[in-house]
Structure prediction request, 184 residues.
Amino acid sequence: MRLNMMKHHDEFEEELALLTIEVSSMITFLAAVMLFAVNSSCDLKTRKIPNRLILAEGVISLVIVFWSGKILSQPILHLLSMFIALTLGYVLFRTGSLGGGDVKTLLVISLISPGLAFNTTLPITIEAHLGVDIPLIVALLLGHLYIRYYTKRVEEKTKLPPPLVPYLFGGYILVQLFGLLLSV
Prediction:
């Protein structure tokens, strides 16, 4: 009887650990969505994302990932994702493909939600690349379409850069939906 109780206790602890992972994944996902929503709004209205906002989001992101334990349980994923975001972001910024706010938003997102929020069965390198590369590809493709079709008709005189953060947001959602499909 004692052995049976210990077995049930171990099963309960495993289920509790899974629930904790799911709750922390949901919290980091929702925080990333809120961050993207705020930055998308700024990008659409002014085509700028204030540095103070990025700094505040970075601090909040650090608090959330330490509180959730994700950065301690997956340090390589967080570091690799941030390295990829910083490297690709720098190159794309230097070539004029991304603005500074786009790169800083991507960097903060790679801190709080570095890969697939709801699926951790993929190798870390693939997950980190999916978390950064897919949103960037979506943003660049849609940004190109925006420039090609919208600015020629409407904003020809203003020469404003395209708002890419909403497109990064769309790419992030696609990646997370892909992760959900993999986990089913």
Observations:
- The chain has one domain: 2-183.
- The chain has a mean pLDDT of 86.
- The CA atoms of residues 60 and 149 lie 37 Å apart.
